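Incident log, structure service

09:12 report received: a user says their structure output differs between two submissions of the same chain.
09:20 pulled the input from the user's history:
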Amino acid sequence: MNTAYLNRLTLRQLRIFLTVCQRESYSRAADELALTQPAVSAQVRNVEELIGEPLFDYVGKRLSLTPAGVAMRRAGEDLMQRLVHLEMEIAELRGVMQGTLSLAIESSAQYFMPGRIAAFCARHPAVAVTLHVLNYGEALKSLRESRYDLVVMGQMPDDRSLRFVPFRENRLIAVAPAGHPLLGADSVPLARFVRHTLLVREPGSGTRQVFEHHCQAQGVRLTHQQQLGALEAIKAGVIAGLGLAVLPADACQRELASGELAVLPVDGLPLKRSWCITHPRARHLTPVADAFFSDVIGA
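09:34 re-ran on a clean worker, output below:
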């Protein structure tokens, strides 16, 4: 990379390049930036001509970074983060918590995290929060790429490069529709429970992974599963009588209170995990992200 000419690189070009990286598409980046696709392509070409190296390759139909692109992305993200940090530090000198917080949460956390975000924003009205709802697999990928300031997950990988703190219990419960025959039992063996149709989320779901690992550890084979994807679709499916499910207790409070769903006394359940707030240790938190991290674990 010819660094002698990098002083001609503009922040606008860098922002466009990083958006293409994040969206893995010129057209999706153009939509996000409210630009035309030719305008985005032209800016990326200008950067490539400036450094004398291609930034992207197509592998099949997928856009991927070249070695020069990887280096440019790493440097660009670092520069943007430093600028954001500087903006927040200057605001702090004025006695104001100001800036942005990019937060990703595993989908089951959507039932309680908005309240914590609202309380934080009420105390710091000059802070703008961007919330991204992901499944477990997507959340892991975002951590590897250091895409967001903070991530909230229901189970943590064994990875010493991550800093994480548990802050809330995450209970996985078995649920059935009101009036289901199994509700009359004092306890339901796991092997009996899984003989019923179980409504599950996509393979990248943390809830699905935890329950499948539990069944595997108990020597119980899952054979009757129907994938519905979203939590709301699964709850509606259980209520309609399509099957039973194992879901986060946080996701079912309204339906349990109304009597539309009931907790099944399945042996070995609930499965207890912890909600954690995390970020890569190598990522230096902005003042806003650090304040939110402390706010969550101190609540």
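09:41 both user submissions now match this output. Likely a transient worker issue. Closing.
09:42 reviewer note: The longest strand covers residues 162-177. The chain has three domains: 3-73, 77-168+275-298, 169-273.
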